[in-house]
Amino acid sequence: MPDDRTDDRTAVLVRAAQRGDTLAMAELLDVLAPYVGRVCSAVALDQGADAAQEALVAVFKSLRTLKNPAALHGWVRAIAVREALRTAHRAGRTVPADLSALPARGDPQLSTDIRDVLDRLSPEHRAVLMLRDVEGLDERTAAALLGVRTGTVKSRLHRARDTFRKAWTS
């Protein structure tokens, strides 16, 4: 969790970058890139780097519209999730794969199962899992971020967790 000095420094960077300060933009990029990369790779998987690049471009194109620098991380997260979903859809990974092909317990390939199971979920299910279980957002906030109803987030989360659990324990 960032402390007040980090928040203050980030606010200064945002304001300077909004004025066109290229050094501030570069420093802000250094701060945001790892976070955006983690968010995008959790949703877009193998296309995570492409999604992160698209998200960062969108962030810096729209940075002048950010009114409250304290809202930077939430604003960036929304852009990153949107771009990751868009990239995953463009890549054709919208239809979940067959989960019956997972390795059995004791198989040497078991160490890659988590990534494999995530790869088999739809981008929407990966996004909900990431927002709720990694980012710790509540259903209402995740719904607003994804542009869907709270009930949709709850049902996607239930299906994603259930599918993950079944695939993991089979």
UniProtKB/TrEMBL annotation:
CDD domains, from UniProt? Sigma70_r4 (cd06171)
Keyword Electron transport appears in the UniProt entry: no
Recorded hits in Pfam families, A to Z, give:
Sigma70_r4_2 (PF08281)
> Which InterPro entries does this entry report, sorted A to Z?
RNA_pol_sigma-70-like, RNA_pol_sigma-70_dom, RNA_pol_sigma70_r4_t2, RNA_pol_sigma_r2, RNA_pol_sigma_r3/r4-like, WH-like_DNA-bd_sf
Residues in domain RNA polymerase sigma factor 70 region 4 type?
113-161
Q: Which GO terms describe its molecular function?
A: DNA binding; sigma factor activity
Q: What UniProt keywords apply to this chain's record, in alphabetical order?
A: Sigma factor, Transcription, Transcription regulation
Biological-process GO terms, alphabetical: DNA-templated transcription initiation
What family, per the record?
Belongs to the sigma-70 factor family. ECF subfamily.
Entry protein name: RNA polymerase sigma-70 factor (ECF subfamily)
